[in-house]
Design brief:
This protein is α+β, with helices and mostly antiparallel strands. It is 28% helix and 26% strand. Helix 1 runs antiparallel to helix 2 and helix 3 packs antiparallel against helix 5. Bound molecules: magnesium ion (MG).
């Protein structure tokens, strides 16, 4: 049976700052979807930090206007409650007024893929908060192209031919500018692009042996839509696992690194990505950037219960180490790599400040004169 998995998520308001959505807001979102559940095979709502995600299984294909409208309307309803409760940032990710058939480019993050369901179809749903889509670049590279994390590339004949990466240039705003590269042949080209998390982002990954889509990542950059800083993009991604795809543990493995990503306080700093339990909140320095993972199976379009992949004693140790990494980089405050480079801040208030400061610069006359003479 053909099934489409769609996850659509948005920050529509949170309690006590950027911490978590209120229970009433999340309930209202769920109620709206429940009222319309005939449109879908199944659904699941959850939150990660201040973002609410709706995961759908349905038969309507990728980019379905009905599914996108369902999510959009649910978030609109939730926003109403957020306003009634006076939540911080009510409706902040709903950047357009009228729904235009697809939530892409309207604020919410979307990851979707359609496939023929296998007899057993395990998949993972990752949601991050206080960071950007490029935060997944390193983990996806390691899970799908590096045998240090994915021994299946060596041990499973079905995976021997590797995976195809579709990478998007998210700075390009006229349309979707993408490149397709094959691992392992193009490994260094893939790495050369993926090192730059703010510009190049893995959009999807395909198995080369079966030409099947395995991964779909949300790639929207809010700054490209709003033209100003309105919060980080807080990306989601879906990955199928097992069989001719990496095992669940191979996909989870790179998240033990707690690599440094852009985000955290005011979306303007560098912090380590912490794997957290589902429905976790945001705390230290409006961070650290967090990622949660729900593991499920889908069968005939119906979900099993969602298992929390980072709710295990192993990850407690990782979280402790990531906390130390967060504190280490915080020690240097705004200096150097602790705060993002100017290019990544130019959608925020620092632009005005820099304009004012710039006018106060002087070029020393004597030196200029000396240089002029030396040149002549
Ligand atoms: Mg958020």
């Amino acid at each position: 049976m053909r099934v489409t998995l769609s996850v659509i998520k948005a920050d529509i308001g949170s309690v006590g700052g950027h911490i978590t959505p209120s229970r009433r807001v999340e309930d209202r979102v769920r109620e709206h979807v429940e009222k319309n559940r005939k449109l879908v095979y199944d659904y699941l709502t959850s939150h990660t930090g201040d973002d609410i995600a709706i995961l759908f299984s349905h038969g309507r294909g990728v980019g379905s206007a009905e599914i996108h409208r369902l999510a959009w309307d649910a978030f609109k309803e939730g926003t109403q409650v957020a306003k009634e409760q006076g939540l911080y940032g009510a409706g902040q990710d709903l950047l357009k007024d009228a729904f235009s058939g697809n939530v892409k480019g309207m604020g919410p993050a979307v990851a979707e893929m359609e496939f023929e369901e296998r007899p057993n179809e395990p998949f993972l749903f990752f949601a991050a908060d206080k960071t950007e889509p490029g935060a997944y670049n390193l983990p996806l590279y390691l899970s799908f192209a590096d045998p240090m994390h994915c021994p299946g590339l060596l041990l499973s004949p079905k995976m021997a031919s590797g995976f195809r990466f579709v990478i998007m240039d998210v700075d390009y705003t006229e349309g979707d500018r993408v490149i397709e590269l094959n691992a392992p042949e193009d490994l260094y080209d893939i790495a050369a692009l993926l090192r730059d998390n703010s510009r190049f982002v893995v959009e999807s990954i395909f198995s080369r042996s079966e030409n099947e889509q395995v991964v779909s990542v949300s790639t929207s950059r809010l700054r490209n839509i709003a033209g100003k800083y309105t919060g980080k993009d807080d990306p989601v991604f879906l990955s199928r696992s097992q069989g001719s795809f990496p095992a669940t543990g191979e996909i989870l493995s790179p998240f033990a690194i707690g690599h440094y990503v852009a985000g955290t306080m005011r979306g303007s700093h560098t912090g380590p990505l912490m794997p957290v339990k589902q429905n976790s909140t945001i705390s230290f320095f409006d961070g650290p950037p967090i990622v949660s993972c729900a593991a499920l199976c889908v069968h005939n379009g119906k979900f099993t219960e969602a298992v929390d992949a980072f709710d295990h004693p192993f990850w407690d140790q990782v979280r402790s180490q990531v906390s130390l990494k967060a504190m280490e980089i915080r020690k240097q405050g705004f200096s150097g790599i602790a705060m993002l480079p100017y290019d990544d801040l130019e959608y925020g208030g620092i632009v005005e400040k820099m304009k004012k400061i710039d006018k106060k610069f002087v070029v020393r006359k004597e030196k200029k004169e000396k240089l002029r003479k030396a040149a002549s």
